[in-house]
Amino acid sequence: MGILNINDDSFAGDGRLDADWALARAVEMVAEGADIIDVGGESARTNRPPISEKEELARVRPFLENFSKAMSSARPRTDSQVFPPLVSLNTWRPNVVSGALAAGFDILNDMSALPDETNALHCSSIGAALLIMHSKGEPKIAHKHITYPDVMSELLAFFKEKTEIAIRAGVSREHLILDPGIDFAKQAPDNLRIYRELEKLMALGFPILLPVSRKSVIGRVLGIERPQERDAGTIACIVAGCLRGASIFRIHNVSAAWFAVRAVGTLQ
User: Fold this and answer.
1) What range defines the domain where residue 51 resides?
2) CATH number, residue 57
3) Cα 171 versus chain centre, distance
4) How far apart are the first and last CA of the chain?
5) Which end of the chain is less congested by CB atoms within 10 angstroms, N or C?
6) What pTM value is reported for the model?
7) Extended beta strands in the chain, E state
């Protein structure tokens, strides 16, 4: 899953406020090996205020509306690649989701932690998959004070509740993906334990997405402040995730991740 930020304040410094650039970058990501393009109009950074729903839609709708046309010039890296790639809409506000329904997307990457059935109902209405991310509290607010007696028990209970909400709203079980929410309302020891004990989440029977790319926990472990310099640590996390059964990796450096996954595959 290639990360495509149509904003100018991504923590990794890789976004632009330019839909034409975003479409061209999506074509490049396909050539680098991306199966999914995850497009977002707003940074998840908690040291920035939320933008308006109107502004977020103005950023992502032109991309969504012109994506199919842009893919006519794209060439996948391998025959086994998903092509055309799936489009994932990365947001947390139901009004943005509903405003993007007509433009179309294949997956909703829901950062809201699914507080109710609203976003699940939107997905059900168009047959989109739903990616449920674990977190606590509202998005765009730092939750550095939150701790868990047992983070894995917390995740298991959370996903049991949220998948039941989604299924009742009409999202099929086969259209659900789980994201443990690395760095979201978690401390470094929580994040590391999730990596080490990923098989406990695998037991739930849903595909697991690992949003590992350039995360703060990598920076803390390796002593690297600049996110752009954390790709080596990111690759290590991808390898660990592959060996523990993760299905999807949300990544800035798509080409490096493609090589890592391919190398692991030859060794198993």
Assistant:
1) 2-267
2) 3.20.20.20
3) 18
4) 22
5) C
6) 0.94
7) 2-5, 36-40, 86-91, 107-110, 129-133, 176-179, 209-210, 248-249
